């Protein structure tokens, strides 16, 4: 599946879904590292994120989703990064995704949603791998200096 401009054009009548996630960063001797997750049936890495449940606020949902998809739970929020909008991977709804910036010293944890997210890994802030969503990569790159400044 290739992501092109059509993923960023909202179809008439499509249901909207509030979503939350984050850019999780840890300090290492090699520099700042970013946590990325694998998602089944998707080629490339993604930021951990998912739907906000009824009664949840955005920050609570982001923490839950990061733990479910990347196994990271010892997180400190450093700020808000961006809100991105696009179709979700199956084109069933329009995602309005709130991304926060989080710090952790945790290297690994237990991924709770292994059925959909079979793995995670750490990548240098300045050398990101192929990512499925171009807007996620662009967001990190566009906020690279702000991310550095937060650490």
Describe the structure using short key phrases.
single chain; alpha+beta; 6-stranded mixed β-sheet; 6 strands; globular
Structural overview:
The protein is of the alpha+beta class and 151 residues long. It has one domain (14-150): Alpha-Beta Complex (Nucleoside Triphosphate Pyrophosphohydrolase). Helices cover 19% and strands 33% of the residues. It is built from 3 helices and 6 strands; from the N terminus they run E-E-E-H-E-E-E-H-H. It has helices spanning 58-70, 134-142, 144-150; strands spanning 16-28, 31-37, 49-51, 76-87, 94-103, 120-124. Strands 1, 2, 3, 4, 5 and 6 form a 6-stranded mixed beta sheet that branches. A hairpin with a 2-residue loop joins strand 1 and strand 2. The chain starts with 15 loop residues before the first strand and ends with a helix.
């Amino acid at each position: 599946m290739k992501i092109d401009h059509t993923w960023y054009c909202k179809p008439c009548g499509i249901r909207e879904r509030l979503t939350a996630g984050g850019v999780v960063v840890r300090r290492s001797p090699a520099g700042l590292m970013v946590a990325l997750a694998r998602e089944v049936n998707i080629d490339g890495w993604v930021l951990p994120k998912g739907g906000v449940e009824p009664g949840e606020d955005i920050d609570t949902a982001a923490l839950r989703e990061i733990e479910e998809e990347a196994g990271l739970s010892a997180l400190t929020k450093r700020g808000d990064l961006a809100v991105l909008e696009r179709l979700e991977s199956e084109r069933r709804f329009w995602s309005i995704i709130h991304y926060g910036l989080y710090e952790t010293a945790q290297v690994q944890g237990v991924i709770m949603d292994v059925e959909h997210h079979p793995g995670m890994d750490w990548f240098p802030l300045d050398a990101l791998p192929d990512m499925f969503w171009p807007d996620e990569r662009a967001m990190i790159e566009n906020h690279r200096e702000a991310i550095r400044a937060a650490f």
